[in-house]
Write a structure and sequence with these properties.
With 611 residues, the chain is of the alpha/beta class. It folds into three domains: 3-144, Chitobiase/beta-hexosaminidase domain 2-like (Chitobiase, domain 2), CATH 3.30.379.10; 150-516, TIM Barrel; 527-609, Immunoglobulins (Immunoglobulin-like, Sandwich). The protein has 18 helices and 26 strands. Strands 8-9-14-15-16-17-18-19 form an eight-stranded parallel β-barrel, surrounded by five helices. Strands 1-7-5-6-4-2-3 form a seven-stranded mixed β-sheet. Strand 8 (150-156), helix 4 and strand 9 (181-185) form a beta-alpha-beta unit. The structure holds acetamide (ACM). Acetamide is lined by residues 328-329, 378, 395.
Length: 611
Amino acid sequence: MSTTMFLSCLYVLLAAQSINIIPQPQKVEMKKGFFVLNEKTSIYFNDQQLKSLANYTSATIKSFNKLQLHVKSRNGTKSNAKSINLILDPKINTAKEGYALSVSSKEISIKANTSHGLFLGVQSLFQLIPINGDRKVPSLLIEDEPRFAWRGLLLDVSRHFFTIDEVKHLIDQMATYKFNLLQLHLTDDQGWRLEIKSYPELTKIGAWRVPRTGLWWERECPQEGEEATYGGFYTQEEIKDLIKYAAKYYINILPEIDVPGHSLSAIAAYPYLSSSGLKYNVNPGCQFYGIDDNSLCAGKESTYEFLNIVFTEVAELFPFEYIHIGGDECYKGFWKKCEDCQKRMKDNGLKDVNELQSYFIKRLEKMLKEKGKKLMGWDEILEGGLAPNASVMSWRGMKGGIAAAKANHHVVMSPNGFAYLDLYQGDPAIEPPAYSMLRLNTVYAFEPVPVGVDSSFILGGQGNLWTESVPTFRQAEYMLWPRSFALAEVLWSPKQSRNWTDFIRRTEEHLQRLSKADINYARSFYDAIIIPSKDEKGNLLIQLSTEIEGLEIYYTFDNTYPDHYSPLYKKEEKLAIPKDADTFRVITYRDGKQIGRIITILIADLAKRVK
Ligand code: ACM
């Protein structure tokens, strides 16, 4: 690289660092100067279909900058001076969802060949407007388009119920970061959340469970005569309203009806749906696997008749091209003992219960096709043979997705090791309960296209928020942000533009935006990471690190709270445990101020963490 090229790259890089867009746009060229917003700035739109976008732009700017900008219509594709111009131009060569945003001291213009592109350009513009009340927007040129068409989040509304208003709130937040798909996990053992007019008991019984708090899977099962008072469901009218709302934000809603496993709420409502036919209650989070018959019977024809009617209503309600049928973690123990299942297997030459599940999914695929829909399922649908046109959502790592893509099926990557937002994001000693660890930097390292796989089969990726341990919407936000910033960038931005240090710089600015909007988020990436190990004699040793650069770590073994007067950890040092010390505490600072939380952990518990 020549010196001039190097310097010009450096200039672009340095200049680009003064803006804070998440996800990082494809191409940014910084210019000199600013556009200054003021009361006389108008928002012009050149096509009637942009009127609501222009009004939304004005309302949003007003909400965070207290500036009332007037909305005006005009013809043609030229920009007006001293204005923000939203220009729909079918002739402009932007990619699907792409846009061009230019800011000069004279005007701001956003151009795209679809209103969707313009909407996404407007999101970038919002992020260029400072949050400190300053009204200067830096001059620049942005040309942007997504890396992936499928940029999803999943919200599990079964394990805990979230209201339509809360889901709308999530949609607002998703739009800011250019997500375009929300999967609603509408059914599971712990609640059926969608009105099905032909089967009213699904929501009359299936949407309700006995109230419990405390650790999921360790709760008491429903007791005789206990009233089921926790739950809720969405009426079809509410769903229509939600879909309309999401469409204004260019977000598709993907419904998931999880079958044949995870179906206890349906079985509680209609016991004939299971192999055992036993009467069960909706599960409140008590241990059940293999004890309750929570799988739909794959033998009886009545199961398929039920599903055909359920999916008819679902297909009529949700306009999105896909329906997600779940297909994960189906316990098949009852199928082995079920006469109807055994007969079905014999009649169809199926050699085991995996092939029976495959038969079940293939019938569903045909059923959905007749209703004009495509089938998406979790990677277990590969077991026993994949249905001809099924698409796969890979969650048990990437291998299911790789196998499906190699067999020319479409894939959405949502591997638990990179995209499961229900997992811990910081030390388990101070985080709410979860299954395993998924720190922010791991999410940022997610690469949806594995080596050797034809990328045209990878539709994109998705972050999944399962809500066993997420009882409130505030907690959902805590789990979502900032890890979903990382996902947004993974799914939108070019792979080569990933830069952890710069991502954290932008993340810190965006956390201020969330604070201002009263949206909850986690600060766990500021905490210390504790790495215990044992030496060859079996003595416990502690190493410390942090996810981000530039933090100081202080610690104590003496049962006092650490601060900047406590011992300072030296990088890569291995701390021995002082004799009789029972508790370890650690804290992080930046520039002389506390930034991370205190983590307190018993030495005995640390020792247990060493494998
Ligand atoms: C899943 O996490 N069982 C899809």
